[in-house]
């Protein structure tokens, strides 16, 4: 299943590169900048998604914060994805970059791919399939990186304990064990009554 997912994403990624073509967002300049561009795309898939039709099942997500930072420097630029889930950073120089998506990884899994037009294989990534990846950008290229976000739990809440059959009590033993619980409860009640009588008797004698 994982291989099918990755194959489907690879095909979808190649199609996306052709579709984006020369798409650009507002230019982001840095000192000594070159002519490279990083285009970042964010898609949100159904909760606990295990399918392979990412194009049909995952939707572009707008308003997601993206930060692109040049490693071992103070240079970093940030922006948010548009209605199509895409944001581009232009005027970048050659170098090693870190791309961070502002989505916590506590309740989501990530599938990530980067590549440029004309490349058959995806670009090698550092920290692949997380919300923060590292990638090398070459001179005068447009690199597209896609983040597919798969929520583990849409609400981030623990799963309720299931009610066991035959008792009506969450977490209680089922069927034949219910009588043992009833007997144990009665014995506990009797012990409490006897203890109370003994304490009262001691007080009267003293």
Total count of strands: 9
Summarize the helix and strand pattern as letters: HEHEEEEEEEEH
**With helices defined by DSSP (H or I, 4 residues minimum), what is the helix count?**
3
Helix content: 10-25%
CATH architecture of the largest domain: Sandwich
CATH superfamily of the largest domain: Immunoglobulins
Shape: elongated
Look at the helices and sheets and give the structural class: alpha+beta
Query: How many separate structural domains?
Result: 2
Q: Strand percentage, roughly?
A: 25-35%
- Unreliable stretches covering 5 or more consecutive residues: 17-32, 158-174
CATH topology of the largest domain: Immunoglobulin-like
User: Radius of gyration from the CA trace?
Assistant: 29 Å
Largest sheet: 5 strands, mixed
Mean pLDDT: 77
CA(first)-CA(last) distance: 78 Å
CATH class of the largest domain: Mainly Beta
Describe this structure in words.
By secondary structure, the chain is of the alpha+beta class. The protein has 2 domains: 2-151, Immunoglobulins (Immunoglobulin-like); 175-205. It contains 3 helices and 9 strands; from the N terminus they run αβαββββββββα. The chain has helices at 2-20, 54-57, 178-205, and strands at 36-44, 59-60, 65-70, 76-80, 86-92, 95-101, 108-115, 132-137, 142-151. The strands form 2 sheets. Strands 1, 2, 5, 7 and 9 form a 5-stranded mixed sheet that branches. A 4-stranded antiparallel sheet has the order 4-3-6-8, with no helix packed on it. Strand 3 (65-70) and strand 4 (76-80) form a beta hairpin. The longest helix is centred in the last third of the chain and has 28 residues, at 178-205. It starts with a helix and ends with a helix. 23% of the residues are buried.
């Amino acid at each position: 299943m994982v291989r099918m997912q990755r194959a489907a994403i690879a095909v979808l990624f190649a199609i996306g590169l052709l579709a984006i073509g020369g798409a650009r967002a507002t230019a982001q300049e840095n000192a000594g900048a070159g002519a490279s561009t990083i285009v970042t795309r964010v898609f949100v898939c159904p909760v606990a998604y295990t399918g392979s039709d990412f194009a049909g099942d995952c939707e572009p997500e707008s308003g997601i914060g993206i930060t692109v930072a040049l490693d071992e420097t103070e240079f970093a630029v940030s922006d948010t994805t548009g209605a199509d889930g895409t944001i581009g950073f232009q005027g970048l120089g050659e170098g090693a970059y870190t791309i961070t998506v502002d989505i916590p990884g506590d309740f989501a899994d990530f599938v990530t791919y980067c590549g440029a037009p004309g490349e058959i294989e995806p670009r090698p990534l550092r920290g692949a399939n997380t919300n923060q990846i590292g990638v090398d950008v070459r001179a005068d290229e447009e690199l597209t990186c896609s983040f597919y976000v798969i929520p583990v739990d849409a609400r981030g809440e623990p799963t309720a304990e299931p009610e066991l059959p035959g008792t009506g009590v969450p977490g209680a033993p089922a069927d034949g064990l219910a009588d043992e619980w009833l007997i144990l409860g009665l014995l506990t009640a009797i012990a409490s009554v006897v203890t109370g009588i003994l304490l009262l008797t001691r007080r009267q004698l003293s």
